[in-house]
Amino acid sequence: MGDRALIVFTNTARDEVSPVVYLHWDGHNVPEWLAELKAKMAGREGDVPYSAARFVGICHEHIDGNVSLGMWNAPTGMLANPAEHSHGDAGVIVVNANDYSWQAFGGYLEKQAA
Predict the structure, then answer these.
(1) Residue 24: CA atoms inside 13 Å, Cβ hemisphere, count?
(2) Domain locations in the chain?
(3) DSSP label at 51?
(4) Which candidate in 14, 18, 38, 111 could, as Cys together with 9 as Cys, close a disulfide (CB 3.0–4.6 Å)?
């Protein structure tokens, strides 16, 4: 069906949450693209909205066409149990915009972390 991933940016306190970034075919690329984002956002750590926006820009640089990339508002309480929102595949990736560390839930990226 794909290599789906849902990516959400937040801060250490988790009191700010970005929209969900949806990737249909590129879940395996998330760690690499987050490393690219970390370099791009040097000096702007902690900026949840800009982190999400710049991540979408990175996705656009790598994904051709007009499909396989989407966004929607994060459901209330999504961070309480991220795995329950997973489509499988790469899972739900929660990114701390303060240091760009991330954790995955409900998918194969759970075995990795940054």
Answers:
(1) 11
(2) 5-111
(3) H
(4) 18
Q: What is the pLDDT of residues 35-76, one digit of tens each?
A: 999 999 999 999 999 999 999 999 999 999 999 999 999 999
Angle between helices 30-40 and 48-62 (to 10 degrees): 120
Task: Name 95's bridge partners.
Answer: 9, 102
CB 49 within 8 A of CB 18: yes
CA distance 66 to 54: 18
pTM greater than 0.90: yes
Q: Are 78 and 29 in contact (CB under 8 A)?
A: no
From CA 5, how far away is CA 106, in angstroms rounded? 10
DSSP character at residue 15: -
Note the Cα 97 to chain centre separation in Å. 10
